[in-house]
């Protein structure tokens, strides 16, 4: 009997009522179709109300108190067994496309993080990143939400490939950067997060990127003899405390 392919699609911190099937004012047609054709649970509980511990629990099968990443800013140890590693041993190809956030934004000697600056914006590093990471043989990552300064990684590479060579101007500057280092951003927004909308073209939003790259991975697996496990990890609708972003349905 052939082994089944596994496609895991997640959104980030989405309340179970934030679906068109629950509230007709919301437009989530693709998620609604998954609800109609599959199962929808309104009494399911995540292991933590914080994203990093919950995400780490998904791939480890452990509570945050056991896998170690008990809150944001605490790294998931890289020696914790993951479902991806078990699936590789079972003959699967494994991939993660989208948001990871297994590691903190502050890298220290005691707890080094590749999801921290300046590594996030070191695009040559990400172009050459080909190691198995937390059980994923193939990764394409984006750490930021909306116009946060945490932008970079494979998403920024994709932006450049799609002609947005000045992508940094559409995102907040790194802490300590002056207006002189991002003149277009300063002129357009004045670095003010209130009373404005994000000018990044919708087709270049990271939701579109995650979907496009996930489909590309699935297409590449069509001729493979190995079954696959793909986690498409979408960033939205992660609350941003008043920050405005482009709302796209997964």
UniProtKB/TrEMBL annotation:
Q: Which UniProt keywords apply?
A: Calcium, Hydrolase, Metal-binding
- Stored InterPro entries: Alkaline_phosphatase_core_sf, Sulfatase, Sulfatase_CS, Sulfatase_N
**What span is annotated as the signal peptide, if there is one?**
none
Recorded hits in PROSITE patterns, A to Z, give: SULFATASE_1
Specify the domain of life of the species encoding this protein.
Bacteria
Residue span, Sulfatase N-terminal domain: 4-241
Q: Does the keyword Metal-binding apply?
A: yes
The family assignment reads: Belongs to the sulfatase family.
State what protein this is by name: Sulfatase-like hydrolase/transferase
């Amino acid at each position: 009997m052939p082994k089944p392919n596994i496609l895991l699609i997640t959104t980030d911190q989405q309340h179970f009522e934030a679906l068109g099937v629950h509230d007709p004012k919301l437009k989530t047609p693709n998620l609604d179709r998954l609800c109609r054709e599959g199962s929808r649970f309104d009494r399911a509980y995540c292991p933590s109300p914080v994203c990093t511990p919950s995400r780490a629990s998904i791939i480890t099968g452990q509570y945050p108190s056991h896998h170690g990443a008990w809150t944001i800013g605490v790294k998931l140890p890289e020696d914790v067994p993951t479902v991806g590693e078990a699936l590789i041993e079972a003959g699967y190809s494994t991939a993660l496309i989208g948001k990871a956030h297994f590691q903190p934004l502050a890298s220290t000697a005691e707890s080094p993080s590749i999801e921290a600056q300046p590594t996030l914006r070191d695009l040559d590093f990400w172009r050459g990143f080909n190691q198995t990471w937390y059980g994923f043989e193939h990764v394409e990552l984006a750490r930021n939400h909306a116009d946060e300064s945490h932008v970079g990684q494979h998403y920024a590479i994709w932006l450049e490939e799609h002609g947005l060579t000045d992508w940094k101007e559409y995102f907040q500057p790194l802490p300590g950067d002056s207006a002189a280092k991002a003149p277009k951003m300063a002129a357009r927004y004045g670095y003010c997060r209130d009373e404005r909308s994000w000018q990044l073209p919708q087709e270049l939003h990271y939701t579109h990127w995650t979907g496009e790259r996930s489909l590309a991975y699935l297409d590449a697996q069509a001729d493979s003899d190995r079954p696959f496990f793909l986690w498409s990890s979408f960033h939205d609708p992660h609350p941003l405390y008043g920050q405005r972003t482009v709302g796209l349905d997964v």
